[in-house]
Design a protein that fits this description.
- The longest helix has 54 residues.
- Helix 2 runs antiparallel to helix 3, helix 6 runs antiparallel to helix 7 and helix 19 runs antiparallel to helix 20.
- Strands 7-6-5-8-9-10 form a six-stranded parallel beta sheet, with helices on both faces. Strands 2-3-1-4 form a four-stranded antiparallel beta sheet.
- Helix content is 53%, strand content 10%.
- It is elongated and about 110 Å long.
- A hairpin with a 2-residue loop joins strand 2 and strand 3.
- With 577 residues, it is of the alpha/beta class.
Length: 577
């Protein structure tokens, strides 16, 4: 059996796809159950965070395992396999071990060095243990990953680079200003009371906010988090809990809001946020008045056109019907193929025979629309006019409400990005900021680069040690079976001695038995110790086969020893992490 991981993360897939592929708690459970029920897999664990979804399994066939795990991820995420496949990555055996250890140390995180991933790995192992989907390999792997992550944080200064996503998000909101100076005296709203929300609350307290309001669907958890904040030593931050239906009102008085819930739909719509900032947006320098919710959106340039002479499409009517921009695929909503072809011909400066379009069969029209949808899916946009005019750049007022959305899928409507007086930072913008920061780093980036290099060395050493331990463990059942066979030979010879010397007293019989056992043990000691050492080296897996062949060991006996040891180990590992 061999370790295989199939997954996708912010490094391999766009955030929009990650958002769609998010697995809730029930989906993770079902995915684990279906994975261990599949033929190639014997064990399984799921690591699902806000920016990664990974399925780990112990498989007996590589290609069959990749196909099965990819298919299961697609089925349970709801994203089609054809769409998901280009963004999947696959790691096998030592590379899979290296990947998880690097993830545990924060090297693969959106914010390098962040430590929250350790808690998520711990939760992943606990879930697999609870469902009995983790056997010896995954228990050993995840337990070791936790130890490697802790070692990296304790032996290096990776924490200097490894602030949490919350801190990184607040840095983006503060736009270059020190977070403490930006947050001082602000009123904060935290939506959700899970681990990420609790971390957000603690970070805001340290940053110096004056008040924190916690909203959660479960009132007890919100009240508990508020109590922890108020009872924390050395803090004078006031905190209180409110029900979720109070969020729209609390937004009207909040300066900053952090949302991280497990909701599958939007928690904050653009309309809710627009109403929250009504009357709070600073006076418009050109209009000389304060913006209201009806014209908050109008402070941004219009995105729809289509009134150019000769254009066969009434694009303004489309926008009025849909309520969205007519850019891209939104422009073709509700239009038939003939009309679309008319528009394409107009854009290209040519003409189209309307009679030919009228003669097109429904099947041909459906095929044309399918091709058009495929173009849109690859990022190609439908040109809307031949001579686009530059849009006027309207200065945005300073934000009066800062929103940090750390949920996946998103809690806050992406349309909020367009609202004047509001600054929204979400997982997508954090990924972009992280990529930009990574591009600016150089190998000589000072202490941070040295810490990262030190962690990489730790990961490499630990991967080698883990591989050696696994290879040594692989030969143990064979060694145990060999010693069991030797014990049977000794017992058989002592029984034959009893038959030949029936008058032998117990004292002499025991002495002879002990002598024979010592001889056998001494003969087996050096070879078994050496074979374990050799098996721990790369390519040492063949020593178990050689040992079975040389001593004519029964394969089923070896397998039964292995199963007994694994059952014992699994029983021990299924306790609390």
């Amino acid at each position: 059996m061999s370790l295989l991981v199939v997954g996708l993360s912010h490094r391999s897939a766009p955030v929009s796809l990650l958002e769609r592929a998010t697995l809730n708690a029930d989906a993770q459970i079902k995915l684990l159950q279906d994975t261990v029920a599949a033929e190639p897999a014997a064990e399984a664990a799921v690591l699902a965070t806000c920016n990664r979804i990974e399925l780990y399994a112990d498989v007996d066939k590589f290609h069959a395992g990749v196909a099965e795990l990819s298919t299961l991820l697609a089925q349970h995420s709801g994203v089609g396999l054809d769409e998901l496949t280009p963004y999947l990555y696959v790691h096998y055996e030592d590379r899979a071990v290296h990947h998880l250890f690097a993830v545990a140390c924060g090297l693969d995180s959106m914010v390098v060095g962040e430590g929250q991933i350790l808690g998520q790995i711990k939760d992943s192992l606990a879930k697999a243990q609870e469902l009995h989907s983790a056997g010896r390999l995954l228990n050993d792997l995840f337990q070791q990953a936790l130890r490697v992550g802790k070692r990296a944080h304790s032996e290096t200064g990776i924490d200097r680079a490894g602030q949490s996503l919350v801190t990184f998000g607040l840095q983006q909101l503060s736009s270059g200003t020190a977070v403490e100076a930006w947050a001082k005296g602000k009123r904060a709203l935290v939506i959700g009371a899970g681990s990420m929300s609790s971390l957000a609350a603690a970070t805001l307290v340290r940053a110096g906010v004056a008040e924190i309001v916690v909203a959660n669907r479960t009132a007890d958890r919100a009240e508990r988090l508020a109590q922890i904040i108020t009872e924390s030593p050395g803090t004078d931050v006031s905190a209180r809990a409110v029900p979720m239906d109070s969020v729209p009102f609390e937004l009207t008085r909040a300066d900053v809001a952090v949302s991280c819930t497990g909701a599958t739909g939007l928690v904050l719509t653009a309309e809710t946020v627009a109403e929250a900032v009504e009357g709070r947006v600073p006076q418009d320098a050109t209009a000389g008045r304060t913006a209201t919710k009806d014209d908050v959106r109008e402070t941004l340039p219009p995105t729809s056109v289509g009134t150019e002479d000769g254009c066969p499409l009434d694009l303004s009517a489309v926008q009025g019907a849909t309520g969205f921009s007519v850019m891209g695929e939104a422009a073709v909503a509700g239009m038939d193929a003939a009309t679309l072809e008319q528009h394409a011909a107009w854009v290209g400066g040519s003409a189209v025979d309307r009679r030919e379009a009228a003669r097109r069969t429904p099947e041909a029209e459906a095929e044309l629309i399918t091709e058009l949808a495929a173009m849109a899916a690859t990022g190609v946009r439908i040109p809307e006019r031949r001579r686009p005019e530059p849009l006027a750049q309207v200065p945005r007022p300073a934000p009066v409400l800062s929103l940090l959305d750390l949920a996946m899928p998103r809690d806050v409507d992406a349309a909020v990005h367009r609202l004047a007086g509001v600054r929204l930072v979400d997982i997508e913008s954090l990924a972009e900021a992280s990529a930009t920061a990574s591009d600016k780093r150089t190998p000589s980036a000072g202490p941070m680069a040295a810490d990262v290099d030190a962690v990489r060395r730790i990961v490499s050493d630990e991967v080698a040690a883990f591989g050696a331990a696994q290879r040594a463990a692989h030969i143990t059942p064979t060694v145990v079976a060999l010693r069991a066979m030797a014990a049977e030979v000794v017992a058989g010879e002592i029984a034959r001695l009893d038959g030949r010397l029936p008058g032998l007293d117990d004292k002499h019989r025991a002495e002879i038995t002990q002598t024979v056992r010592r001889v056998v043990d001494k003969l087996l000691h050096a070879p078994t110790v050496r074979v374990k050492q050799l098996a721990a080296e790369p390519g040492g897996a063949g020593y178990a086969d050689a040992l079975r062949t040389l001593f004519d060991l029964d394969q089923e006996t070896v397998a039964s020893v292995s199963r007994a040891e694994e059952d014992s180990e699994n029983s021990k590992n299924r306790g609390p992490v």
